[in-house]
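Sequence in, structure out. Go.
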Amino acid sequence: MGCQALLHVGQQMLRRKVVDCSREDSRLSRCLNTFDLVALGVGSTLGAGVYVLAGAVARENAGPAIVISFLIAALASVLAGLCYGEFGARVPKTGSAYLYSYVTVGELWAFITGWNLILSYIIGTSSVARAWSATFDELIGKPIGEFSRTHMALNAPGVLAENPDMFAVVIILILTGLLTLGVKESAMVNKIFTCVNVLVLAFIMVSGFVKGSITNWQLTEEDIRNTSGSLCLNNGTNKGDLGFGGFMPFGFSGVLSGAATCFYAFVGFDCIATTGEEVKNPQKAIPVGIVASLLICFVAYFGVSAALTLMMPYFCLDKDSPLPDAFKHVGWEGAKYAVAVGSLCALSTSLLGSMFPMPRVIYAMAEDGLLFKFLARINNRTKTPIIATLTSGAIAAVMAFLFDLKDLVDLMSIGTLLAYSLVAACVLVLRYQPEQPNMVYQMARTADELDQVDQNELVSTSDSHTGFLPGAETFSLKTLLSPKNTEPSKFSGLIVNISTSLIALFILIFCIVAVHGKEALIRQELWVVFVLIGSSLLCSLVTGIIWRQPESKTKLSFKVPFLPVLPVLSIFVNIYLMMQLDQGTWVRFAVWMVIGFVIYFGYGLWHSEEASLAAGQARTPDGNLDHCK
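Output:
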C-alpha cells in the first residue's frame, strides 16, 4: 500500500502539461512584433557588461585575443539560443524554459527550472539596480553614497550590505510601475534606450578604429618590459602578470578562460521566450528575435573589445572603467560623457530585461497551480500580470536595499545554465518522439498563420501518422543501431529518453573530473585519464545511437540544425560552466531549492491544474484537442 502511494506521487511529479492550442484567446495583450523582441533581447543582453567586461577580460585573461573569446562565447550562446528558438516555434505560450520543461520532461523538473529562473531574474534586477545607482552617483560626485554611509549604515558585515541603496529601490519601483502600465509602453521605452546604447557603441567602435593602432596587437615581451610605464602614461595599471605580448599574450588557455567569463555577457536573450502570448506571430518572431539579438550583441562586443585594445595596450587597461581611460589615453577625454550616457541607457535596458520576464514566469507557474493562484491575476485594462509584477518588484527592491549581492550574482548563473541545459535536452527528446494526439504542443500553428498548401500538407501528414501503427519491437543490437521504422515509435522514443539521460550523466562525470581533478590531470594520474577518455567515448557512442533513431517529420517554422550533436554540445558547455562555480554558490543554491521544494510539495503538487484535469478526465487522448496539430 505504501509502495503504491509512493508510485502515485512519483507519477504526479512526472506528469506532463498538455498545451491547449485550440484556445486562440490569450489573457495577455498580443501587441509585440519582431522588432520589439529584437530590441528586448539586445537591451537585456547588451547591458553594462560591454562597458566594463571587455577591459577586465583583456587585461587579465586574453589580451587583444579577447575578440576570439567573444566569438567562442557567442557560438556557445547560439547553441542555447537555437534550442530556445525551436521551442518558441513549438510552444508559443508564456513561460520560457519552465513551460518547455513542463511539456517535455514533467512537472517536478519544470518547477525546478521555473524556480531557478525566478531567482535569476530577481538577483539580476537587484544587482543591475545597484549598478545603475552607483554609476549615476559617480557621475554627480557621489552624494548618494555619502548620505547612505553617514545616516543609514548597516552593521552586519558578511550578511547585509555596508550601505543600503535607497536610489536602487526607487529605480525598481519606477520600472515596476512602468511594467504595470502595459507591455507596449514598456517595449517603447526599451526601444528608445536600446537605440541610444547601440549608437554610443557604434561611436566607440568608429573612434577606436580611427584613433587606434595595430601596433598595440603586435607588442613583444621586450616592448612590454621596457616601455610599459611610458605606454600606459604611468597610470599604475601595468602591474601583475603582463603576459608574453603579441595577439595572444596569455596563450590559448587564456582565450578559453576569457570565453567562460564572456559567456555570461550573452545571458539575457531568454527573456524573449517569455513573450509567447504577447507576440503577434510567435512561431516566427521568437526564433528570429533570439538569433538576431545574439548576432547584434556579438558584433557590438567584438567591435568594442577590438576598438579598446587598438586604442590602448591591453596591459594598460583599467579593469573598472576601461573606456573613459582609453579615450583619455588617445586625447579624447570629452568622450567619457558619451560613454556615461551609453552605460546608463545600457543599465536601464538591462534592468527592464531582467524585470520584464520575471512576472511572466511567476504568472505561468501560478496559472498552472504550482505557485499561489492569486499571482496569476491579470489587470483587465492593461492586460498585464499585475500581482506577479508588483510582488516580484517588491522582492527585488528589498534585496537591492539590503544586500550587496556580490556573492549572490553567481546564483544567477546556476539558474540560467540549468535552464539552458534542460531546454537543450528537451529539444533532443522531443525531436525523436512519435506523433500522438495528446502531444498537441508539437505543432502549435493557427490556421491564419498557414497558407492552404501548408494546411493540406499538415492534414495529410497527420492522417498518415494516425494510420501508422508499427509492429511490436524487441530490444536488440539491430533495433538499436539500425531500426526498421522510418517514423518514430514508442520504442525508439524510449531509447532516446534513456540515451539523453545517459549523455547528461557522462557529461556530468566528465566535467566534475575535468574541473575538480585538474591537478591530478596535470600529474597525469591514470584514473583521471581513464575517466575522461571513458566518459567521452561513451557519450559519443550514445550520441551515435540517438543519431540512428528515426526523427519526427513534424513541420515547424524553425528547427535546430545538426541534431543530435548541437544540443549535446550545448548541454556540455552549460554543465562545464556550472562546475566552475565555487562551493559557497552551490550551498546558497541548495538553500534556495529547499525553500522551493517546501512550496512545491506543500502546495504545488496538490493544486496543479494538470492534476485536476487528469482527475476530471478533462483531456483524453481522443478528446477535442488533437485538431491542434
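Check: Residues 17 and 173 are 34 Å apart (CA to CA). The longest helix spans residues 107-139.
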